[in-house]
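Feature request, filed as a ticket because there's no other form

It would be nice if the structure record came with a short human-readable summary line next to the tokens. Right now we just get the raw output. Example of a typical job, pasted below so the devs can see what we mean:
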Amino acid sequence: MVTASPPQSGRAEGAEPSARQVAGRRWRSARGVVAVVLAMIVVAVVLAALRPSTSADALDPESPKPDGSRALAEILRQNGTQVTVTRSTDDAIAAATPGSTLVVTRSERLTEEDLGRLRSAPLFMLLVRPTSFALDALAPQVRQDGPTYEEADEPGCTLDAATLAGKAAFHQSDTYDVTGSRTSCYQTEYGASRLVRIQNGASTVTVLGSTAPLTNRRLTEEGNAALAMNLAGGGGSHVVWLVPDLPEEGSGAGQQSIGDLLPFGVKLLILELLVAVVLVALWRARRLGPVVAEALPVVVRSAETVEGRARLYRAGHARDRASDALRSGARERLVPLLGLPRSSAQDPSAAREIVTAVAHRTTYDETYVGAALYGPEPLDDDGLIALTDVLDDLERQVRQS
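Raw output as currently delivered:
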């Protein structure tokens, strides 16, 4: 039978670590991970606190709230432009005339049927920060490129609505890439634009990537008021402002993707979590620690141990280790029979003495005995089996001599 005893340590026999010591070791090993998680929570809370929330009345021309658009609607009316507020697509199309501008906000509330009706109507449209589904339906040449946070920028284009307004303060804004004929304004350093105008069939569509120029809070910044008035009222003397109501349950509003539904702060938090997981994995992978000897939980039969180790040697083609184990075991058993100290079995300086003693007690010469007890590894499995037979024969002859 083969058993393994627990390793001896410097502590007094029977002394076990206390619960406080164990808890301290666990805390020291886990405090780095805890610190990273707490840091991410703090960053997420700060982002959530700094990011302004969007109210249900955002971009509503009847709302006096900071993110409403009542101030712009009143300025348009004072300058002779009629503003008609609608809450459904059907009402907006019915109110629109050939010389009017349709301002489409909160496009995430539009259903596929709504987008289809708007696409088939020849309108002069202003889409304010539309969703990707609204772009596919109403401005298929335009693709979202990504957000930008440059607060103000010059127009850098020939569009009258932008050049007359001059510098505008967009703050956070979506940007767009456009294929085909278009007019692009307020470009970023990477070439994407915050404001684009295209011709989509019989409709002229203007896409604005920021809500800031239309809101009560930002209307007085830079040339925002002029830009908003030119875009909304530039098509004529009538503005139809569509702020869709929430669609009825089950009507398939918006068909939004996961990216459209998730706020930017949540996306940033997910990215931080992924980076943190990778960094923790790399950090812990380098702290595997030393090999620890442990007591076997059960008693294992010696035959099972020998067979299991033999299979491992065979699977790894480790004939060198297998032959060393066979020779070492044979020398350990031969040395007491020869009257030599046990320590000489693994002592290279005693090899000559052992070989001579074995040769005198057997029918083999010293060269043959030396090759059997200290020779090179066998070339194949058959050679390993032959070595086993030779060692057994040497041991048998020594015992019988």
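Something like this underneath would help us a lot:
The CA atoms of residues 42 and 48 lie 10 Å apart.
The longest strand covers residues 193-200.
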